[in-house]
Amino acid sequence: MLAAVFVLFGLTLWRWGGQGPIPWTRSAIFFPGGLLILAALNVHLRAKGLAWGVFSLALVSCFIVVGTWVVADRAWAGLPTMDFFRASALYGFLAAAALFQLRVGSSERG
Questions:
Q1: Of 10, 65, 73, 106, most Cβ neighbours within 10 A?
Q2: What pTM value is reported for the model?
Q3: Taking the C-alpha atoms of 89, 70, 13 and 34 in order, what is their torsion angle to the nearest 10 degrees?
Q4: Which of 43, 69, 64, 68 is nearest to 54 (CA)?
C-alpha cells in the first residue's frame, strides 16, 4: 500500500518537474512528502501514535481535497480533475497504509 503512495507522489513530482524546477516550498509538495516520510519511518518504528497521526492527517486531507473538488466543480467549468483525483488517491492510500500499520502493530502484541 505504501508503494502505491510512493508511485502517486512520484507522479506528482514528475508533473511539477515538467513545468520547471520542483517548488519544494509549496504545500502540495512538502505536506504529502512529510506524511510519506513519517509513514515510511513508522514501518520501522511501529509507533501507534505516529500511525494514528498520519492516518488522521491523511484522511482529513483526503476529505478536504474531495470537498474542494466538489465545490469547485460546481462553481467553475474546465477544472483539472486528474489533479484532484491524484491528490485524493494519494491521501486515501496514505490513510489506508497508516491504518494497516495500526493493524499490524496491534496483532503482534497479542
A1: 65
A2: 0.83
A3: -70
A4: 43
Select from 57, 55, 80 the least CA-distant residue to 69. Answer: 80
Whether residue 50 is predicted with pLDDT greater than 80 in this model: the reply is: yes
Cell of 31: 505536506
Confirm if 16 and 23 have CB atoms less than 8 A apart.
yes
User: Is residue 76 left, alpha or beta, with left meaning phi > 0 and alpha meaning psi from -120 to 50?
Assistant: beta
Q: pLDDT tens, 58-69?
A: 999 999 999 999
- State the number of CA atoms in the 13 A half-sphere of 94 facing the CB: 34
